[in-house]
Amino acid sequence: MALLEEWQKIAYDQQADRGKLQKFWQRYFMLEKGVYEKLLTNPDEKVEGTVKELAEKYKVDVMTMVGFLDGINDSLVIPNPIEEMEEDTVVTLAYDKELLYKNMVDAKADWLYNLPMWDEIFTEEQKKTLYMEQKKSGTVIKGKKIGRNDPCPCGSGKKYKACHAAFDDKLARLAQEGHVVPTHDLIKTPDQIAGIKESAKINVAVLDYIEKNIYAGMNTAEIDKIVYDMTTSMGGIPAPLNYEGYPYSVCTSVNEQVCHGFPSEKVILKEGDIINVDCSTILNGYFSDSSRMFCIGEVSPEKKKLVQVTKECVELGLKEVKPWGFLGDMGQAVHDHAYANGYTVVREIGGHGVGLEFHEEPWVGYNSRRGTQMVLAPGMIFTIEPMVNMGGVEIFIDEENDWEVYTEDGMPSAQWEIMVLVTEDGHEVLSW
Question: What is the value of pTM for the model shown?
Answer without folding.
Answer: 0.72
